[in-house]
Design brief:
Blueprint lengths: L5 H5 L5 E5 L2 E5 L1 E16 H7 L14 E14 L4 E9 L11 H9 L1 E2 L1 E8 L2 H11 L3 E3 L1 E6 L3 E8 L2 E9 L5 E13 L2 E17 L5 E5 L4 H9 L7 E15 L4 H12 L3 H4 L2
Parallel strand pairs: 6-12, 7-8
Antiparallel strand pairs: 1-2, 3-4, 3-15, 4-5, 5-7, 9-10, 10-11, 11-14, 12-13, 13-15
Length: 279
């Protein structure tokens, strides 16, 4: 697979200044250097349907009656909103443009590297990352501690809120022979309507594994999200694992420009002091 330089990946994408909580944010947001791992765990399809806020979100079936929950740990080193860490808890949805057959829809997404996740929880580590995500797109964000630990063989992410463990995900540093452009059409729920935000990914180094032993998942015993995961997952062994030690992203703005969102953007612009507008 071909490689893509940083210049090639971001070329031709214009950015505009948008204001939130008195701070300027560039949209779309460029993530110039990051790393991540993502593990997919099996979950009952009816449990997943109860988690989704709208019947237009349809969970993909990996096997009949079994869907997928993706847990992604992301460490952003260089972005337009500064460095921060993030942890995504998402439900894998059907691509609405592909026949919704068990196994087939998800396989086509994998072959095309074009995914449709619904973001259920999205903790982050900075106030700036929290505010723009909630204000513009309705991301279900909250502040948490997201710490990465490295050994020569493994990359581990520890997610806690107020020192209460949610989960610890440890992934093996497998070989990364691939580079690939991926697209994620992220599904959200804003103003009680489906919302979509495109996340374009330049996986400069990518490894994929079907070995359950490459991922270790530990859940907390008291945090509500840990308890929710414990109820949702059919087992704590991953059925697919992506290791991506070198990544770039483009996060576009929301596709649905609702009237409340338009009003919010206008009001934010009216509150900006003139000295900040001149910068």
């Amino acid at each position: 697979m071909g490689t893509h330089s940083e210049k090639d990946f971001f070329a031709g994408i214009s950015q505009v200044d948008v204001w939130s909580a008195g701070e300027k944010v560039k949209l779309p947001i460029f993530y110039r250097d990051a790393r991540a791992h993502l593990a997919i765990f099996p979950a009952g399809i009816f449990t997943l349907k109860r988690m989704l806020p709208d019947p237009r979100f349809v969970p993909a079936q990996i096997l009949p009656g079994i869907g997928g929950v993706a847990l992604a740990s992301l460490e952003y080193h260089d972005t337009d909103i500064g460095p921060y860490n993030e942890f995504a808890f998402s439900v894998l949805l059907n691509n609405p443009h592909i026949l919704p057959l068990p196994g087939y829809n998800m396989l086509r997404q994998l072959l095309q590297f074009n995914f449709y996740p619904y973001i259920h929880h999205l903790p982050v580590t900075t106030e700036t990352a929290l505010r723009w995500g909630i204000d513009f797109s309705g991301f279900p964000k909250f502040l948490a501690s997201i710490d990465f630990e490295d050994t020569p063989d493994r990359m581990t992410c520890v997610l806690k809120e107020k020192n209460d463990l949610i989960c610890r995900v440890s992934g093996r540093k497998i070989n990364t022979p691939f580079s690939r452009i991926m697209k994620m059409l992220i599904r959200l729920y804003q103003e009680r309507q489906p919302q979509t935000t495109e996340f374009k990914v330049n996986a400069r180094s990518l490894g994929i594994s079907l070995n359950p032993g490459d991922v270790e998942l530990e859940l907390g015993t008291s945090h509500p999200i840990a308890l929710e995961l414990s109820r949702t997952l059919l087992m704590r062994r991953a059925i697919m694992y992506f290791y991506m030690p070198s990544l770039q992203f483009v996060l576009y703005g929301p596709e649905r420009m609702s009237l409340p969102l338009m009003n919010f953007l206008i009001q934010q612009g009216m509150r900006i002091p003139l000295d900040k507008l001149r910068k």
